[in-house]
From TrEMBL:
Domain of life: Eukaryota
Cross-referenced Gene3D superfamilies: 3.40.50.450
Pfam families tied to this protein: Lysine_decarbox
Protein's recorded name: Cytokinin riboside 5'-monophosphate phosphoribohydrolase
Amino acid sequence: MGYTAVNPTSMGHVFPRNSHQKDLILGSSMRKETWRFNLYLPKLKYQSRKSFCCKNELIDFEERTSSNEVKKEIEQCYELIHRLGRGVVYLGSSRIGPGHPHYEKTFELGSKIADLLDCTTWSGAGPGLMDAAMQGALQAGKPVGGFKIGKEAGEWTATNFHAYLPSESYLTCRFFSARKHGLVDAVVRCRSSDRTAVVVLPGGIGTLDEVFEIMALIQLERIGSLLPVPLLLMNYDSFYSNLLEFLNDCEKWGTVSKGEVASLWKVCNNNSEALDYLAEFYGLSPIETKRRDSESSECRSLS
């Protein structure tokens, strides 16, 4: 490959010609000065990762080199949602187990919201508060679905199978991006009759990652641009109070507009506030709400 270069010390007025011309006309003397050199690039060979990683790492790396693998998993998420129906997505800690007050509150909330909105309950299909919401919905006799991940916080799962959910009601995702697509699409309202919501329970890094991503999507009108989707922050025992103070400070610093955060979600201190808000949001009359609670109580007593 041939290139023509100009000696920088002799640069005067430059009158460029076409790229195939070998010489440049320099200065008023019209003196020709030409440098030529050849640039040869060596052929780079792709080094297989086999030479520096173990077999399991190689399999994971090869899967990630193809966008088709992620695309297939996202399509599977959409198929599962289409089959089970959109509904309420619960985001929360996988570490808080039975016996904890927040677990008991989440169990009750999952049961009552499933009754109130008569919809599918979605979660990450993991342990902890995700499990509490699903158990509550199952007790209410409502469908549940989930997007499971191979690893939950603090523990490696022995298998990719859920402990009690039938295989047709959840998907084990290899990619977090596909899982997030599923959790978001499960709450997108396509019709005014769709009753969906995002319920944020106490949680850690994973929960905060998910809730702020959804907040950003709502803020940018990627979710709820036509039909709004309620986002509820369950501030059990003031769990999120310090976070709310920090966001108030963000307003003082000017990184968010005044009242912007409050417009994106509803902060609820207990289950009653959450149920009242959802009933009002979807225009459910107090009579209908009480009827659903009554029917749910009868079903549980018969079972």
